[in-house]
Amino acid sequence: MDPQAFMKARLDRGAVPLAVGDVLALIVLLTVGTLNHVPASFLIDNPLHLPEVYAPFLIGWLLMAPLIGAYSAGAVETAKSSIPLVIRSWIPAAAIGFVLREFVFAGGASPVFVGIIFVTGLIALAGWRALYFKLRG
Description:
By secondary structure, this protein is an all-alpha fold. It contains 7 helices and no strands. The chain is globular and about 45 Å long.
């Protein structure tokens, strides 16, 4: 299969709301986590801190989610098909984020942090998608 056909099968226009919601869910998760560890005054004095927190995980997400099919036609059909795709996408996306955070961006990737982000990321993404399909009806 050629790469264009492969990606075409992985991307569906109907998944745009899912993509926006996924990115927002990750940003909210990472923002809440950051605010639990640094005071708001630090963020005001260091306006690039939050983007540096987001970057490794959003890069991992943008690389893996389309490849795994988080935005395929199947992801748009039902929560039953969409949630497993978002979970399967988050695991390697988060792994890429941890590597980038450890070696490229500030922050590191302690084992406790890895465990918390894996689990809370799964909950945030799966929870968002469950809510999306419930509201969609």
